[in-house]
Amino acid sequence: MQARTKINRQGRIVVPAECRAAAGLKPGDDLIVETLGEGELRLSTPRRAIKEAQLIVARHQKKRGDPVQELIDERRAEGGP
Fold first, then answer.
1. Confidence (pTM)
2. 13: CB partners within 8 A, 6+ apart
3. Per-residue model confidence as pLDDT tens digits over 51-68
4. Could you tell me which residues come within 8 angstroms of residue 20 by beta carbon, excluding any fewer than 6 positions away?
């Protein structure tokens, strides 16, 4: 979805209602403003930013089984309880 808006004299912008609705944003929601480059900003919720970070970490993790079971197996192999 795309819409136009303006920056007022106080530096504020209004996110059009149809854009807020499409993004699932409600009054009082916190937003993160990120600069992507000259003339470009991204707005996202903290929840969305966390999901994005989790996806980045997941791509770099080895595909493994249950980490708790692996730790138990390692300790037993070392002669632990």
1. 0.63
2. 5, 6, 7
3. 999 998 888 776 667 778
4. 26
